[in-house]
């Protein structure tokens, strides 16, 4: 009898999990991958994709159909839509399809990999809607960046640093670029904060410390950014990078954390959703120990392994994280800052070689041909 594994989410975690299960060629197993977009999106390169001419659309967007079509047709199905409700007792999920109709998917095993979205929903640092909406978002920001003379980037975490760095590298000598930092140091004050601030300074990026954005107002084609210190910055382009919201609204509340600002999925040491037997979660919906690319990769591999084990009547194994905890932040196209295991600083050239040079765009191929899993 055919067993069905439904995977919600066609991004890093979901597609990785799908490849890992499909490559096993397990008999009588069908994978249903649900994605709101027809395309896989390499959002890690979004910070550079807003600079015209740097990254081609096809370098960071690839059809999910292409990724799955290498497997026998009867072993998979791609459903374009978004989960609107899940019933873990009846083992069903409700999907709103791209034509706004609804489809109920029964499952034997369910994988939650719906990721997270930016608090400012119109920013491309995470997936934005469907394929056309994501492409248009990047193109619109790129077009505005060309003509803008004043740009404000809000948020001095890793995304904000990378966005400001890319803009500074390209436009630092001709435009005014301001990075807003709520604390007295960027990157939350980690031991590479001073290095990151120094690199941004070399790119002519101005950092304003100790301020938060209170509100923004549109004013004659510009944006007035009202700060917590009472100051108002009038800018041609405002790019917020603060806040990630897990895409978990379709999941019953009892399976989510109590934090109203981050309703992530509660999982056990196997990455199985707490108080369930056949529901698993990985990636940004978990955000444990934190959101991160390497963590997501390891979680997806662990979930696939455990789903396969449970279907075979065996016990799951405890999920393990990356052997080395790496934080790498590109600062423009030639420099970067990073650390290993929380405190060991990485040389700038190492961060450039590992991330900043290409923003790992060559890895897209592995997600399409399946070699990632």
From TrEMBL:
* This protein's GO CC annotations: cytoplasm
State the UniProt keywords alphabetically: FAD, Flavoprotein, Oxidoreductase
What molecular function terms (GO) are annotated for this protein?
A: electron-transferring-flavoprotein dehydrogenase activity; flavin adenine dinucleotide binding
Give the SUPFAM superfamilies listed for this entry.
FAD/NAD(P)-binding domain
Superkingdom field: Eukaryota
- What InterPro entries does its record include? FAD/NAD-bd_sf, FAD/NAD-binding_dom
- Does the keyword section mention Cell cycle? no
Q: List, for all copies, the residue spans of the domain called FAD/NAD(P)-binding.
A: 4-289
Protein family according to the UniProt entry = Belongs to the FAD-dependent oxidoreductase family.
Q: What is this protein called?
A: FAD/NAD(P)-binding domain-containing protein
